[in-house]
Amino acid sequence: MRITIVQGAFMPVPPILGTSVEKIWFALGKEFARRGHAVTHISRTHAALKQTECVEGVNHIRIPGFDVPRSLVRLKWRDLRYSRRAVKVIPEADILVTNTFWLPLLAPATSKGKLYVHVARYPRGQMRFYFKAARLQTVSTVIKNAICREAPQLASRVKLIPNFVSSLGQSPGRQKRERCFLYVGRLHPEKGVHLLVEAFRNLLAAGLRDWRLRLVGPWEVALGGGGEDYFRLLRMKSTGIEKFVDWVGPVFDSEQLSAHYRQSSVFVYPSLAGRGEASPLAPLEAMAEGCPTVVSSLECFRDYIQPGLNGWTFDENSRDKAAALAATLQGVLDNESVLTKVRDDAFRTAQRYALPNIADLYLNDFQELVAS
């Protein structure tokens, strides 16, 4: 098949500035090409990348894009300008994949491919206008249900294909890990990072010793973070416990990220984005390296987290959210034998989400659309 992937206006591909969606489709494009399909990947330009090149069988075309603005209105305007540029360079194909807001409305002639819309965020009213789409594909049950509620006339076109882990570590066994709580992701209020800092402070005040908190991710708005004011708030909340907190900053290299997962004892992802998260990739990546996870009770995690079996959840709707998270973390630490079992079960769960398995689901779906 001929497959075109059109990425959004704000992040380059390869994902040298991070973000899950670009990371996912960069890996999928290479896997499709490895299996003999003709793949074109369109994304924004970047000073470190050529305007056109072939990477592991994938033809890359890069067009001018933008940094992420603070204003939502400005963001949509920039996405529109970028999408209009993208339409001009889309080649003829069988399948046209995109995660942009405007391209499904500006979709070119069918000779450019059956329109395959990747929905990685909670829909906000736009789905009902995507009637040109042959497929509305998303990564979790909660988002699938939201799309069907928003556009019931398109429900038959909605498909759930989960995210994947691009690499699987070795069985965790009983290898020694650092006494470290790890967070990987954007330092943004919707991710609940401030709750994690407060919960860790509570644990230290209650007598926790020899444990560290490691925060990996960007705070800059241009990289999806919460900005300087939020970063300043986080630093303020860590006053007095600075020597126990590691501010690593953004890490975009997959091997370095895997090393963080392998070295840490517990991964914590306290997201508060009930209408933002689709299916965060970081918890699955941690599980693939045998690092059990603690997440909030958002519906998006229910597709792969079974509390007490392969991970844990805390109630982000509690009156004192930080105290609820601290209590959950303390419960994890109090039972080392359960921690070991959950680590093994988390690793086994992640095996189901290996890249080749998920690529099969996409290619089978593409073939079905092309045949129809």
How far is the N terminus from the C terminus?
A: 14 Å
CATH fold naming of the largest domain = Rossmann fold
Q: SSE string, helix = H, strand = E?
A: EHEEEHEHEEHEEHEHEHEHEEHHH
Profile the largest sheet.
8 strands, mixed
Helix content: 25-40%
Quickly name the level 1 CATH class of the largest domain: Alpha Beta
Instruction: Please name the CATH architecture of the largest domain.
Output: 3-Layer(aba) Sandwich
Question: How much β-strand is present in the residues?
Answer: 15-25%
Structural class: alpha/beta
Provide the residue-averaged pLDDT.
Answer: 92
Write down how many β-strands occur, each being a DSSP E stretch of 2 or more residues. Answer: 14
CATH homologous superfamily name of the largest domain?
Glycogen Phosphorylase B
Poorly predicted spans: none
Tell me the layout of helices and strands.
Blueprint: E1 2-6, H1 20-34, E2 38-44, E3 52-55, E4 58-63, H2 72-89, E5 95-98, H3 103-106, E6 114-119, E7 135-138, H4 141-150, E8 158-160, E9 178-184, H5 193-205, E10 212-216, H6 228-237, E11 245-249, H7 254-263, E12 264-269, H8 281-288, E13 293-296, E14 311-314, H9 321-333, H10 336-351, H11 355-371
Parallel strand pairs: 1-2, 1-5, 2-4, 5-6, 6-7, 7-8, 9-10, 9-12, 10-11, 12-13, 13-14
Antiparallel strand pairs: 3-4
